[in-house]
Write a structure and sequence with these properties.
The structure is a single chain. 29% of the residues lie in helices and 22% in strands. Helix 20 crosses helix 22.
Length: 743
């Protein structure tokens, strides 16, 4: 690993006794600068001007106030000017906007927004902490009442009031459109769903979480749909409609607007615009400060700008990347706090310097933690690196103590072995692993170093070989040629380009019956040595299992038998199916993943013009029947309904029947049925229900995956919440099909 930075104390320079510091902006960076300056000196006069009325607030917590998870806005705004005066002897003036800077005369012009009075204040050191402004896209109707962005506590209060007061206004807010699927957009989506709203997310790119690689964010796409969110990808909002009561809906254009439609309309009583932010550099430009290539203020490592005695901190300022040293702009509260502290220290004689960022971040999306650090695969390739890519799927802790799958995608430089970046998604444990990996990248770790990390182990928290250890081992083997990897997208691309690759499935027949990589040869690992003669040792070969471990074992067998070019499918069939299932543009040269082999029948075909839906689970003994029962009842016959299973049971779950009878729906005639290709072809929407790889994907359909707990063997108390969740999702499906549910 690289040598640690010099952490020895440096001598502090003397501070001017009557130093006068003016800070413009009072959220994370501005208040951090003021507080650190005061800690270093008691003699300086420190003044903060803030155009808004709230200071030092938790901007990242605002969505949770909108959703009600944070009950009181005061919990996000715990400090006021009086607190700062008492604690730090800092004068904070809210409702005061700095409108001009005279850098030569070292003065600022300030407007008191309450009275309109203008006055001039002088400074020795000026800190610009003006933050960001929300991007306002040029959409017709964007100024309508009921259209919001979220940046300040005032914004959050206005959104919450719009929802909670809507009934008294005569138009209850029941549905919302969120424009943009980045961090704030997804946090708002989660919280609006928690409030019981029907939510549509419109994203111009072809996947949510634009800062992540598409093969990882596909899991976020699935999580959104699992919770009933109508996700419209590769789609833009081209207009917002309104009337005297406020916003009424949005007009959309693109893939998500519907087949054959130039534009489509989505009803909504609330619209959240979350398409990004830009650094608020107006004051900096007026002061003659140089901007960097990112559009934010260029600063040195002590947060000094190009103008003497002017500093810039927080979201208005550029940072630089830990790996490349190049300027980057990633507005995060954690970075803003560091920048403020560094500037406050430096201007009062301290030695602190900024050491760069990796853009490390994490967001909760319903039941998933979604985290990243460093370069994505796309960014690493764009930066010129020859990269090795790993998809590592391991439980965050032993499954016998409730461990859940954790997916880590890691990117390394083949030339040096240096770890360049990582993304992690899972129900738990993503935070711990991404922090370890961020630390490793910061200190220049080689991937081989990851295996040697002495990480905490207890089965309640981790596996004996942690997912971080596995990441290091697999990448090391791949980089050094001991166990090469191939990502699903790369495999598809190479085969689509005509490269003759033999793909070997080393799983059991039972696993293969659920789904498989197209055009793969099935030779279970136990038979591979004896049957290796069925393969051509001269051809490039890819082995795979469910997640990667057994595939690596098969890879080693073939390499030891003289096969020269053998790669293991990164993340196994699970990663392949996830990538292929949620790829909006599957290559037409590839077949669908192999479904359960079932006989073709004509009994499922239908010439009905009604919209149709097919529910698929493994045993067709509970979940799919409950969903079919709800859809029949709520649509009153307006939807053609089918249910089927890949390995159907002999009879329906009697406790599921009991649970449905409680809500007045009799599903005793929903006999278990075998899944057929005809049933799929006859259905407009195909909904799989918590069966993972046992539920194959069918391109060209309105496909959804509802990951629901299995009611098999459960008592009535456990089945009721499953039943209620199915009803909620069925109601969302009816809205997508354009059918009004009965009461």
């Amino acid at each position: 690993m690289s040598t640690s930075p010099d952490l020895r104390p440096h001598p502090r320079r003397p501070v001017q006794p009557d130093l006068k510091i003016v800070v413009v902006g009072s959220v994370a960076a501005g208040t951090s600068a003021a507080a650190k300056a005061r800690r270093n000196t008691e003699t300086a006069q420190i003044t903060v001007y803030e155009r808004d009325h709230d200071i030092s607030y938790s901007g990242c917590g605002l969505p949770y106030f909108v959703g009600g998870e944070v009950a009181d806005i005061d919990d996000l705004t715990p400090r006021d000017p009086a607190w700062f005066k008492a604690r730090y002897d800092v004068d904070v003036h809210t409702g005061h906007e700095v409108v001009a800077v005279d850098a030569d005369g070292r003065t600022v012009t300030v407007r008191d927004l309450a009275t309109g009075r203008m006055f001039v204040d002088s400074y020795d050191e000026l800190v610009l902490a003006t933050g960001v402004r929300a991007v306002a896209p040029p959409i017709p109707g964007v100024g309508a009442t009921g259209v919001f962005s979220l940046r300040t506590p005032s914004d959050a209060g206005a959104i919450r009031a719009w929802i909670e007061d809507s009934e008294s206004r005569g138009r209850t807010v029941r549905s919302a459109v969120v424009v943009g699927a980045g961090y704030i957009g997804l946090e708002m989506t989660e919280q609006l769903v928690a409030r019981g709203l029907s939510v549509t997310v419109v994203e111009a790119l072809d996947h949510a979480m634009p800062r992540m690689d598409a093969d990882m964010s596909a899991r976020v796409d699935a999580e959104l749909r699992k919770h009933g969110v109508d996700l419209r990808l590769a789609t833009k909002v081209v207009g917002i409609t309104s009337d005297d009561d406020g916003v009424a809906g949005v007009e959309i254009d693109g893939v998500g607007s519907g087949v054959g439609a130039d534009t489509a309309h989505i009803d909504a009583e609330l619209v959240i615009i979350s398409v990004g932010v830009r650094p608020n550099v107006d004051l900096a430009e007026q002061a003659g400060v140089r901007l960097g290539p990112t559009g934010a203020v260029a600063v040195d490592r002590r947060q000094r700008t190009s103008v003497d005695h002017v500093w810039a901190v927080g979201d208005v300022a550029e940072s630089f990347h830990v790996i490349t040293g190049e300027p980057v702009w990633v507005p995060l509260g954690s970075t803003a706090n560091k920048m403020g502290r560094i500037a406050g220290d430096a201007m009062t004689g301290g030695p602190l310097e900024h050491r760069g960022i990796l853009g490390t971040s994490i967001v909760r999306v319903f039941d998933l933690g979604v985290a990243q650090t460093g370069f994505t695969e796309g960014q690493a390739r764009a930066a010129g690196y020859d990269v090795e890519v790993l998809h590592n799927i391991k439980p965050d802790r032993p499954e016998y103590l409730g461990g859940k799958p954790l997916v880590i995608k890691a990117v390394a430089d083949r030339a040096t072995g240096r770890l360049l970046g990582a993304q992690a998604i899972g129900a738990s444990g993503a935070d711990k692993r991404i922090d370890v990996l961020a630390t490793a990248i910061t200190y220049g770790a080689d991937v081989a170093d990851l295996f040697h990390l002495d990480l905490a182990y207890s089965p309640t928290y981790a596996t004996t070989k942690d997912p971080v250890h596995y990441t290091g081992m697999a990448l090391t083997n791949a980089i050094h040629g001991q166990a090469p990897l191939v990502a699903p997208a790369e495999l598809d691309r190479r085969r689509a380009d005509g490269e003759p690759i033999q793909v070997v499935d080393v799983r059991s027949a039972k696993d293969r019956a659920k789904s498989a990589v197209p055009d793969s040869v099935h030779i279970p690992l136990a038979e591979l040595r004896q049957r290796s003669g069925e393969l051509d040792p001269a051809l490039p070969t890819v082995t795979y299992c469910n997640k990667g471990v057994t595939g690596n074992a098969g890879q080693n067998v073939l390499r030891n038998l003289g096969f020269a070019d053998v790669a293991n499918l990164s993340g196994g069939n699970q990663n392949y199916q996830q990538n292929y299932r949620l790829n909006r543009n599957p290559r037409t040269t590839l077949e669908s993943p192999v479904p359960v082999s079932v006989p073709e029948t004509s009994s499922a075909s239908s010439s009905s013009t009604k919209p149709s839906a097919l529910f698929v689970c493994v045993h067709n003994a509970g979940r799919s029947q409950m969903a079919a029962g709800f859809l029949r009842a709520l649509s009153a016959g307006a939807v053609e309904v089918r249910s089927a299973g890949s390995m159907p049971a002999e009879q329906i779950n009697p406790v599921a029947v009991e649970a449905m009878l409680e809500v007045g729906i009799d599903i005793r005639d929903e006999k278990p049925k075998i899944l057929t290709n005809d049933a799929v072809e006859a259905s407009d929407a195909v909904i799989t229900m918590g069966c993972g790889d046992a539920c194959p994907y069918y391109p060209g359909k309105n496909y959804q995956d509802w990951e629901l707990d299995d009611p098999a063997g459960q008592g009535i108390e456990a089945i009721r919440p499953i039943r209620d969740e199915i009803e909620r999702r069925v109601r969302g499906l009816l809205a997508e099909l354009g059918v009004q549910p009965v009461a």
